[in-house]
């Protein structure tokens, strides 16, 4: 059996489409565990009207933390595999079947993910998503770590994982309210859990509109530093081996934060441009830093022009 794990909050607009995508799965030996985070709309009522014994609704008090909600569902799960599925995303009919087949073909594989199509929420338009650079049908754990340490190309709703692997690394870290996905991927690969990939787009990943300079985006970027600090403490050998890759990622993260702060007219933006340059003394980072010192208004105008 495969346990499908869905955290949910105020998804009355989307949850029926997600449910329909499960009903049409060619692999039918599944259970759907939904943890509702005290929705204030009609989400719970809609779910309770789904007439299928394979569905279990856990009515939680509001915690506002996806890691906590997913972990709670995992503890209640009966399946040997977990499939993560956000309550506004849509599985293609053969998704579970094809991913489970890959586990049979690759018995050493501990988790896998698939290509996706992007579903624009405002228009309903589906657009293809390019194959991640370096992604292969099967990657040894360390190979995957080296790639994921530089770029998180795994969409969480595309992932299926062995229950044993999930609990081997103690699941999601409850304290990670953001970036809980890349935190898990890095701990899995650092712990020796190899990963597979299917190039067929088996998920419609919904993208909702958000502002370039939103506070939530800034919080997400800041949480990345916690992820890599945890890796440094918990897995010092692999962190040291791929230090240059990690520094490049962290440099890019500082650059993104600097751009966010510049757009918000936050005076701390120069500190992040400087840290980006220190971690990756490239020509690109040098230009960004010099412009932030000499004439930040030009940078701000350039960024505003990009968003229109």
Describe the structure.
With 308 residues, the chain is α/β, with parallel strands linked by helices. It folds into two domains: 2-207, Spore Coat Polysaccharide Biosynthesis Protein SpsA, Chain A, CATH 3.90.550.10; 215-306, no CATH class. It has 13 helices and ten strands. The protein has helices spanning 15-23, 43-48, 66-76, 95-105, 141-148, 163-168, 180-190, 215-234, 236-241, 243-263, 269-279, 283-294, 296-306, and strands spanning 2-8, 30-36, 55-59, 81-84, 90-91, 111-120, 126-128, 138-139, 160-162, 195-207. Strands 1, 2, 3, 4, 5, 6, 7, 8, 9 and 10 form a ten-stranded mixed beta sheet that branches. α11 packs antiparallel against α12. It is globular and about 65 Å long. The N and C termini lie far apart (48 Å).
Can you identify the CATH class of the largest domain?
Alpha Beta
Between the first and last Cα atoms, what is the distance in angstroms? 48 Å
Question: Number of helical runs?
Answer: 13
Q: How would you sum up the global shape?
A: globular
Number of domains: 2
Number of E-type strands? 10
**Unreliable sequence segments:** 211-215
The overall pLDDT, averaged over residues, is: 91
CATH arch. level architecture of the largest domain? Alpha-Beta Complex
- Note the beta-strand portion: 15-25%
Query: CATH superfamily name of the largest domain?
Result: Spore Coat Polysaccharide Biosynthesis Protein SpsA, Chain A
The major sheet is characterized as: 10 strands, mixed
CATH topology call of the largest domain? Spore Coat Polysaccharide Biosynthesis Protein SpsA, Chain A
Radius of gyration: 20 Å
């Amino acid at each position: 059996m495969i346990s499908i794990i869905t955290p949910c909050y105020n998804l009355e607009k989307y949850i029926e489409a997600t449910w329909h995508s499960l009903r049409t799965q060619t692999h039918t030996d599944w259970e759907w565990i939904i943890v509702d985070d005290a929705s204030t709309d009609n989400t719970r009522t809609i779910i309770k009207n789904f007439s299928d014994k394979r569905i279990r609704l856990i009515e939680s008090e509001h915690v506002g933390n996806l890691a906590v909600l997913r972990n709670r569902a995992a503890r209640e799960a009966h399946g040997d595999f977990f499939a993560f599925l956000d309550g506004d995303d849509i599985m293609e009919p053969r998704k579970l079947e094809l991913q489970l087949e890959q586990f049979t073909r690759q018995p050493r594989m501990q988790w896998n993910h698939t290509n996706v199509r992007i579903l624009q929420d405002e228009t309903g338009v589906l657009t293809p998503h390019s194959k991640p650079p370096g992604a292969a049908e099967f990657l040894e754990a360390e190979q995957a770590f080296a790639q994921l340490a530089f770029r998180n190309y795994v969409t969480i709703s595309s992932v299926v994982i062995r229950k044993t692997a999930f609990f081997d690394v103690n699941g999601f870290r409850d304290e990670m309210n953001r970036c809980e996905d890349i935190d898990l991927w890095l701990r899995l690969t650092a712990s020796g859990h190899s990963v597979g990939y299917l190039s067929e787009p088996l998920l419609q990943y919904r993208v909702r509109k958000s502002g370039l300079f939103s506070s939530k985006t800034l919080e997400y970027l800041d949480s990345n530093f916690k992820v890599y600090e945890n890796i440094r403490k918990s897995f010092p050998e692999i962190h040291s081996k791929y230090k240059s890759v990690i520094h490049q990622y962290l440099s890019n993260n500082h650059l993104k934060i600097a751009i966010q702060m510049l757009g918000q007219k936050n005076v701390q933006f120069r500190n992040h441009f400087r840290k980006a340059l220190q971690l990756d003394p490239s020509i690109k980072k040098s230009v960004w830093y010099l412009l932030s010192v000499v004439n930040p208004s030009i940078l701000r105008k350039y960024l505003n022009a990009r968003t229109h």
